[in-house]
Design goal:
single chain, about 120 residues, mainly alpha, globular, Dilute_dom, Dilute domain-containing protein
Amino acid sequence: QEVAGTPALCSIEAGLKIKMNLTTLLHVIKPDESLGKYYKVVESEFQPVQQLANFLVSLSNFSDSLFPDASSVLEMFPKVKPLVLKNVLFHFNDNKNNFADFDSHKAQLMDGISAIAANNKH
């Protein structure tokens, strides 16, 4: 949640750094005799972080074909809380993106994620 609440961390670069650090961590503990037994646990516990990093990196290709609607975003990243995904979208700004309807589609996704999250609470 800290990443999603910090605009500077809602970037493709931050996603790449998270992925690199997580990969390094898993690479270091897997062959280690004393830590290797925790590999599956660590890998499992860090799935939400891995999916969040994947989401951040995938925003480099943000379009309505990659993310057609809120349901597809939630299905692609099921381990990440909907509010976190919404906040990342809110803070993410890519001036280099060539997608013409970037802001309007981003707003539609955020509204859709909010609606789905609200319906799932009941």
